């Protein structure tokens, strides 16, 4: 899985160990990568490798039930948890940015986010457009590792997407992997194509080379008929957002020469960008922040109304979190796509009444190009994840698939994150910044038998803004794996249920009662 994260088809910049999300890395440096691989190759079944921000620092005698790897990435003491201090330590070679699934070795390429993005746009369609995006235009930016899922997620929901990206190679890559349908020559061409497709209710995605801080305000000025606006540039890291007054080719040299000055210029551009998004919201469009901290950076850039539109979690995703639903994903270690097709069928058989899930799996089979090892993602909730995990383990044991299946998830899950401007924005009881939950989540996964467990800081939204945990568990067909999977895949989403019960969400209380999640403060 470490190597798969750095497969050239999977990683955005594998030569620099960068997997996705700006600078999210799989290992601190190549010497660390080699040492991790070497150690894992002869690690015993009762030993655990400790990884500190991408560097293997120890092997401890533990037990068969203990994780094989424990990972802590990018964590800083709160008063020091800012980009300046992180960069100082990074330059000294003492830390690395782990993002969410880069440093925890469960990134599966753009498909990983596609399902979540599909769910989000489906929820937008449900809320505002009668259940489909047919005949609507979505304006967004960023075609990187995560953002590259946006055009396909919009078209899978029937809509038209116009996506602004400043790096021509990213547009090319999304065209090649069929996440993006077309490339426009210029803004006029893009608008023309979009308007025709909207009129004909054709689902089409159009890439446009440009800077979002120029294009979004210009579209607002022209009164373009945009229905939905969001953004997935790498705004969480101001050095990974191209300011409007910097040429693409000067990006790297300029940010290296003067990171402080560059940050200010990026924040000023983000302020212009967000001001235009608020303008679209004022004009009646559905506008939401897509988890990249753009609003916070725009506020730092001097724009006072930056938080006038909501984040996507409170707007659309929280009801799913109350059911323990989140981004369940799995990978076929055989490398054989047939193994994923067999597991797809198993999931469809397990949950025959879930139409949305069925539509997603069929669409994914048709439209998703595998990157690296074949993999799949779908959102499953409390009770469902453990059923799927146990079934996959049986398939490994019975030879229905050729090799073990790795089961994990994004750190962006129902009970594994504290991130007040994203996953925990606007919690009912105001507990947005309480970070005990991801730590409990990591500890319960260690106690339940996960194969590797990670605690990270700053993923998705940047330094100082989030703490989150991940787990990955291997279905190798043994009875021991079955016992571990049953516990991990019950307790891990169970954290989401109890976190939302504690915050006062009625739906979470119902789910806890129906599915047997114990909450002591609700017992007599
Ligand atoms: P990435 O670095 O791979 O891609 C970002 C893209 O934005 C790059 O291709 C870059 O060229 C482009 N870009 C930068 N500045 C631009 C500008 N001014 N105009 C146009 N294009 C510009 O990052 P990614 O993995 O795609 O992630 C994007 C953002 O989404 C990150 O901030 C990440 O933390 C966040 N994220 C959100 C979620 C979620 O669930 N909503 C999940 C993971 C990551």
From TrEMBL:
GO function term, MF aspect, one: urocanate hydratase activity
Key word Nucleotide-binding present: no
Pathway it works in: Amino-acid degradation; L-histidine degradation into L-glutamate; N-formimidoyl-L-glutamate from L-histidine: step 2/3
Pfam families linked: Urocanase (PF01175), Urocanase_C (PF17392), Urocanase_N (PF17391)
Name assigned to this protein: Urocanate hydratase
InterPro entries for the chain: Urocanase (IPR055351), Urocanase-like (IPR023637), Urocanase_C (IPR035401), Urocanase_central_sf (IPR038364), Urocanase_CS (IPR023636), Urocanase_N (IPR035400), Urocanase_Rossmann-like (IPR035085), Urocanase_sf (IPR036190)
Organism for this UniProt entry: Egicoccus halophilus
Entry keywords, A to Z: Cytoplasm, Histidine metabolism, Lyase, NAD
UniProt gene name: hutU
PANTHER family to which the protein is assigned, alphabetical: UROCANATE HYDRATASE
């Amino acid at each position: 899985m470490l190597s798969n994260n750095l497969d050239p088809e999977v990683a955005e910049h594998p030569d620099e160990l960068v997997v996705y999300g700006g600078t999210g890395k799989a290992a601190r440096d190549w010497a660390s990568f080699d040492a991790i691989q070497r150690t894992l190759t002869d690690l015993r079944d009762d030993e655990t490798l400790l990884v500190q921000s991408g560097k293997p620092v120890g092997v401890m005698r533990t037990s068969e039930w203990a994780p094989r790897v424990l990972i802590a990435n990018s964590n800083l003491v709160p008063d020091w948890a800012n980009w300046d201090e992180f960069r100082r330590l990074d330059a000294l070679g003492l830390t690395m940015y782990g993002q969410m699934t880069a440093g925890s070795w469960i990134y599966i390429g753009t498909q990983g986010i596609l399902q979540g993005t599909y769910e989000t746009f489906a929820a937008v369609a449900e809320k505002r457009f009668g259940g489909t995006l047919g005949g609507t235009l979505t304006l967004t930016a960023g075609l990187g590792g995560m953002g590259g899922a946006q055009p396909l997620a919009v078209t899978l929901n029937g809509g038209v997407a116009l996506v602004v990206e400043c790096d021509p190679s990213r547009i090319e890559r999304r065209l090649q992997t069929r996440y993006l349908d077309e490339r426009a020559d210029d803004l006029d061409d893009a608008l023309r194509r979009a308007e025709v497709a909207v009129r004909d209710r054709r689902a089409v995605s159009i890439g446009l080379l440009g800077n979002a801080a120029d294009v979004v305000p210009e579209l607002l000025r022209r009164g373009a008929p945009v229905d939905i606006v969001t953004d997935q540039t790498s705004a969480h890291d101001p050095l990974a957002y191209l300011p409007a007054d910097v040429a693409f080719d000067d990006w790297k040299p300029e940010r290296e020469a003067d990171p402080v000055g560059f940050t200010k210029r990026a924040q000023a551009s983000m302020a212009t960008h967000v001001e235009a998004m608020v303008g679209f919201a004022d004009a009646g469009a559905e506008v939401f922040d897509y988890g990249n901290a753009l609003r916070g950076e725009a506020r730092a850039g001097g724009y006072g109304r930056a938080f006038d539109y909501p984040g996507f979690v409170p707007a659309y995703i929280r009801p799913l979190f109350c059911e323990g639903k989140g981004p369940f994903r799995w990978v076929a270690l055989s490398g054989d796509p047939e193994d994923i097709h067999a597991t797809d069928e198993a999931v469809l058989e397990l949950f025959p009444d879930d139409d949305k899930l069925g539509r997603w799996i069929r669409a994914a089979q048709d439209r998703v190009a595998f990157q690296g090892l074949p993999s799949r993602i779908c959102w499953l909730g409390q009770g469902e994840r453990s059923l799927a995990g146990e079934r996959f383990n049986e398939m490994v044991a019975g030879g229905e698939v050729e090799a073990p299946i790795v089961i994990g998830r994004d750190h962006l899950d129902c009970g594994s994150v504290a991130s007040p401007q994203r996953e925990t924005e606007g919690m009912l009881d105001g507990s947005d910044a309480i970070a005990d939950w991801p730590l409990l989540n990591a500890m319960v996964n260690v106690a339940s038998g996960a194969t590797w467990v990670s605690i990270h800081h700053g993923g998705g939204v940047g330094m100082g803004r989030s703490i989150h945990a991940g787990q990955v568990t291997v279905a190798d067909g043994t009875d021991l794996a079955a016992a571990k999977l049953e516990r991990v895949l019950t307790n891990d989403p169970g954290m989401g249920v109890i976190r939302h019960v504690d915050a006062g969400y009625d739906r979470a209380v119902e789910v806890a009662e129906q599915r047997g999640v114990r909450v002591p403060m609700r017992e007599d």
